[in-house]
Amino acid sequence: MSMVEWISRENKDSLILFVHGLNGGLDTWNFDKEITFPKLLSVDEDISNGFDVACFNYFTKFTQTYAKSKGILARIFSDKKKVEKNLPTDEIAELLYTEVRVNLSEYSRIIIIAHSMGGLISKNFILKKIEHEEQSNIIGFISLAVPHSGAKLASISSMVSSNAQLVDLALLSEATDTLNRRWLNCTKRLPITRYVYGSHDAIVDKKSALPMDSERKNSIAVNEGHSSICKPENNTTTVYVAVKQFIQQINLEAPKKICIERLADEQQYDNEYFVLKMIVADIHQDITMHAKEYYYNAELMRNIFTSDYDRVLLGHLYSKIREIYQEEYEQHIANSIAPDKFISAVHARISREDKSSLDSLIKSLETVHKKGMLHQLANKNDRDIVWSSGTSIETLEQLRRGGYEGK
C-alpha cells in the first residue's frame, strides 16, 4: 500500500509533496473538515496549472503500546495486519526515498513542504537521494517550523519515553547533529530551501527553526504557533501567501531538465562566427553540421541555467573546456594537424574527460552540451578559438560579406 495520499493528480510534470511531523497525519494540514493547506494549493490556478499535489503519510504516535502483556506473542504471530510502530527519522526517510523512487518517478520536479519533524525526515531523504543518484528531481524544500537543532519539548519527553522519534528530535541529539553536518558539508547541489518560523511557536524556537546555513532573504516569520503555521484558513493567510510565493520563486529559479535535441533547420547558425571559422579552415560539412547541433543544445542549456550559482559553475566549466582547446591547439600548431582532425581531437578529448576533469555539479549536462560550449566560446569576432592558424578577423568579415573564396 502506498504511503502517498493524492490531493490532485493530473499527470503534471511537477509535484508539491507535503510531509507532516510528529504525532501528525493528513489532519496536520487541516484548518477544518473542508479547508486544508494541500487543497488550497490544488485549487489555486497559479499553482495547479503546473503542479500536482500529494501528501506523504507515515505512522507516528506518542505512545508505543499496542497490546497488553497478556497474550502478546499470540497476537504478534496471528495478526494478519502489520503492527505499526514509531520508526527513527532515518528509517522514515528511507520509506520516503522508496515512495519517490517507485511511485513518484514520473515527476521531473518536486517541491517538498515539511512541518516540524517532517523537515528532518525530508532533509535526510534529500541527502540520500543526492548521495545515491546522479541527478535529483527535488528542486525545492520549504521548512515550516522544523526543529533543525531539536525541540525543547522533545528533550523533556525523551527522558521518560523510548519513542524513537522523540529521541531523534531532542535538542542536540546525535541524529540531528549528524544530519546537520551532512547537510552543511554536502558538496553536491542541494535544492533551493526556504525557512518559515512561527513567532508564537512554544515548541520550536527561532534559533532551531532557522539553521546556520539560512540567510535573511530565505527566511520569514509569521504570526503563528507550532500547529497553526501549517493550517491556513484561506488563500489570504500570510503563511499561505508566503509559501505560494516561495513555490513560484523556486519553480522559476531551479534549473529545468534538459534533453538532447536535434537541429531541425540545417541552415540555422550559418552566419555564426564559429561556423565561419570552420568554413575558413575547410572543416568538413558533416563535422560542421554536428558542431551546429552541439551549439544548439548548449544554447538551450544556457537559457535554462541562469541563476548566480549556475553561472559560477558554468564559468568553471567553460574555463576547463578552453584549457582542453588550448592544449590541443598547441599540438595542432606543432604537428601541423589538419583542421578536421584537430576539431575531431578536441571533441574526442571532451568526451574522454566528461566524467573526470569536466565533471560538473550540474548533473544534467551531457557531453553534447559540453562540446557545444566549445563552439559558444568560438562564437566571437576574435581569434580566441579557431580551427586554422590562417583564420583572421579580415577573412571572417570577408566571408560574412560573401567576398571570401576560400582555399
CATH class label of the largest domain: Alpha Beta
Annotated CATH homologous superfamily of the largest domain: Alpha/Beta hydrolase fold, catalytic domain
Major β-sheet profile: 7 strands, mixed
- Helix segment tally: 16
Residue share in helix: 40-55%
Query: What would the principal axes of the Cα set say about the shape?
Result: elongated
Task: Sketch the topology as an H/E string, one letter per element.
Answer: EEHHEHHEHEHHHEHEHHHHHHH
> What's the CATH architecture name of the largest domain?
3-Layer(aba) Sandwich
Low-confidence stretches are 63-79, 154-161
Strand order of the largest sheet: 1-3-2-4-5-6-7
Pfam family, one: CTD8
Domain DUF676: 10-155
Keywords: Endoplasmic reticulum, Hydrolase, Membrane
Main location: endoplasmic reticulum
